[in-house]
Amino acid sequence: MLDILTIILSTVVVLSIVVTIHELGHFWAAKACGVAIDCFSIGFGPPLMSWRDKHGVEWRIASIPLGGYVRFSGDENAASVPDQNDLEAMKRSIVSREGEGALKRYFHFKPVWQRAIIAAAGPMANFVLAIAITAVFLVLIGSQHGAVTVKRVLPATPAAASGLAAGDRIIRADRTEITSVGDLVNYVSLRANLPIDLTVLRAGKPLHIVVTPSLVENRDDIRGKVKEGRMGAELASMATLHKSTVLSAIPDATVEVWGMIKTISFYLGRLVTGQVPADQVSGIIGIGHTAGAVAKASTEGAPNFAIMSLRLLFNFMVLIASLSVSIGFMNLLPIPVLDGGHLLMYAYEAIAKRPLRADFQAAGFRAGLALILGFMLFAAWNDLNRYDVFKFIGGLFT
Fold this sequence. Notes:
By secondary structure, the protein is an alpha+beta fold. Among the domains are: 2-36 and 73-135 and 319-396, no CATH class; 143-242, PDZ domain (Pdz3 Domain, Roll). Helix content is 53%, strand content 21%. The chain has eleven helices and twelve strands. The chain has helices at residues 2-32, 84-98, 112-140, 158-162, 181-189, 246-272, 284-299, 305-331, 339-352, 358-386, 389-396, and strands at residues 37-52, 58-72, 143-145, 148-153, 169-173, 176-177, 196-202, 205-211, 214-220, 224-230, 233-237, 240-242. Helix 3 packs antiparallel against helix 8 (305-331). It is elongated. The two termini are 21 Å apart. The relative contact order is 0.13. It holds the Pfam family PDZ_6. Residues 135-204 form the PDZ domain. GO terms for molecular function: metalloendopeptidase activity. Keywords: Hydrolase, Membrane, Metalloprotease, Protease, Transmembrane, Transmembrane helix, Zinc.
């Protein structure tokens, strides 16, 4: 029960921070554009707490803490992109009720470029959060830099078949510079069954070795059962921590976050084309298990409360940065219901000089919602299998 409670509380904390920042991105962009806002809600469902600020915005903390939203004035349909007939009806209603000058306060009558900025501001806020967290870590802790050498090549593995040898210093994988063991492990893990051109130094001379990692199933306490690329070599490194300066931290962190975005894009491309198993897709259960495992690992063995708190803060911030990038990226996908779907419709409106027809919008949003719900169910099924939940339940009845 304690583990379950830890998972639930950790999930709520991590998701609430990431989603709140995402929605604040929309909120701040809308305020900057002069859009009237009715409500900002952390969570869904009936409000547990609510209050109004001096601008008339209702702030809520709702009973289901797994999301959030910003509701603009006049935002009555799921699309937030009414068609021409709806716009005319809405315009007549607003003018008769509040006067002609009130139109400029409503989201739907803002220029399309402003609506696009507001839609994109949520994912951008997620990226900014990840950059800010990463920048702080780069200044206070630094990143690992050092030579990566092959300590031992395991027999009957892709590394052995490629000719990689103990003592080789790996300096590049394809065109990516390798500065730590983590760099190489992460690069290889995403490229099962793909040839990788390793640039190594052997006896001081550069040498190109092509290795094709095999797909291997591993298990750890944080991620459960995962299938990833492995080449079969034990690595060693004399890495040192390199701290960024205050001035270079933001550029350095931006490069790190951009690398994370490229990694997600690369993996998603392999997933869509069937090059990696679909059972590796994870969802909210996986996020919860990871958050709970991170919390548990952070508290175990801590000599005092202060050290435990620092560990918990550090590890949660790392997790929040990673999750923030993932959620920001996924929200930019051109799927109706997501921010990327809104941006796609605004692009159509900018080109066609009119909104997409309401029946097309409705059909697109129904399809998008079905796709998202199907993805969530599929990811939940994967998570239940990954963490052996069915085996655990079966064991209770044997």
